[in-house]
Amino acid sequence: MKYPIITLGSPHGIGYEIFLLSCLKTDDISKNKKVIIGSLHVFKFFQELLQIQLDYTVISFCDFKECNFNDKHILLIDVDENAFNITKLSDITPFIDGSIALKSIIHAADLIERGFFSSMVTLPVSKENINLIDSSFKGHTEYLMNFWHQENVFMSFISDSLNIMLLTTHVALHQVPKMINEANLKTCFKFAELLLQKLGESKPICLLGLNPHAGENGLMGNEEIVMKKVVKELNEKYKKNIVGPIPADTAFIPSNINKYGIYVASYHDQGLIPFKMLAFDTGVNLSFGMKYIRTSVDHGTAVDIIGKKLAKTMSFEKAYDLAIKLSM
After folding, report:
1. Alpha carbon distance 43, 83 (integer Å)
2. What is the set of domains in the chain, with CATH numbers?
3. DSSP secondary structure string, 301-323?
4. ω into 177 cis (within 30 of 0)
5. Residues 6+ positions from 134 with CB-CB distance below 8 Å
6. What is the pLDDT of residues 119-174, one digit of tens each?
7. Where are the beta strands (DSSP E) in 216-318?
8. Among candidates 210, 163, 167, 162, which has minimal Cα distance to 187?
9. What does the pLDDT average to over 32-39?
10. Which helix (H) or strand (E) element contains residue 140?
11. What is the pLDDT of residue 6?
């Protein structure tokens, strides 16, 4: 299907709410056909909580084989095998939350691998609750890498303001320097260039240094020496368009942001802090490099605003549009 499959995320979060709120809009996403996967019981609970009524068709995951979706505006694939009663939010225990969120991811990934869908849009989950079920779960990116047997996948963040690709993802900070080597840098630049092509962007790639002042030529670390060697080789030998490493503290000033098509950040927070400051409500999390497309909102479960209709839907809508664009 050209439509992505949407995982509704953690029941004790704003994922179900974001989807329902997006359906109230009058723009393109509300008019498109959508396939969602999650818990029917939770979905009904949020419909009542938010007083939002929708027409949709339900099918059990166990019964899903091949469904003619042409006449269905919304199709809900239900992952619940056992009925349970939800009358208030506290009925959704951490175990129930983690179990439903994980089953939604697993079953969606399975349907994609079996050829029913070409992309996935994920709404936020609680990693802590999923770890009650599977202690190896670090995040969607790592989990799907293992599920689909993918090796080179880079967490990326896309917005109208700036684009960022992470050289390293969910690893402890003390492990980052070990991962800054020629092989990882060259692979990351390869996928950054490919992503820019798919986005229709021709501006340079900008590499951020790891150390203060980009290392001051080895005075504060040797990582930038490795970076410079790789950048020089790729630019001179293969005519690439890569800048850096540059100091991260000035990389995101307004005059710099417009120069570059994508930044390559050395570690998670180096890229995510500026990205979320500039594009928190509109940014998209993209797992890039896999054989299938996976996009997501760039925020968490926001349990403090559940049921208050305060959740913003733009990041989800952008993720939905990007999934379709990249899978075409």
Report:
1. 13
2. 1-150+290-328 (3.40.718.10), 153-288 (3.40.718.10)
3. --GGGTTTT----HHHHHHHHHH
4. no
5. 102
6. 999 999 999 999 999 999 999 999 999 999 998 999 999 999 899 999 998 889 99
7. 242-246, 262-265, 284-288, 293-297
8. 167
9. 89
10. helix 140-147
11. 97
Token digits of residue 38: 């999650």
Q: pLDDT band at 66, cuts 50/70/90?
A: low
Tokens of 85: 């009663």
Residue 263 to residue 157: CA distance in whole angstroms:
10
Give one DSSP letter per residue of 152-213, joined into a string.
--EEEEE-SS--EEESS-SS-GGGHHHH-SHHHHHHHHHHHHHHHHHHT--SPEEEEPSSGG
How sure is the predictor about 29, in pLDDT bands with cuts at 50, 70 and 90?
Answer: low
**CA distance from start to end of the chain:** 11
The widest CA-to-CA distance across the chain, in whole angstroms, is 65
pTM, entire model: 0.90
Q: Are 157 and 164 in contact (CB under 8 A)?
A: yes
**d(C-alpha 214, C-alpha 135), whole Å:** 36
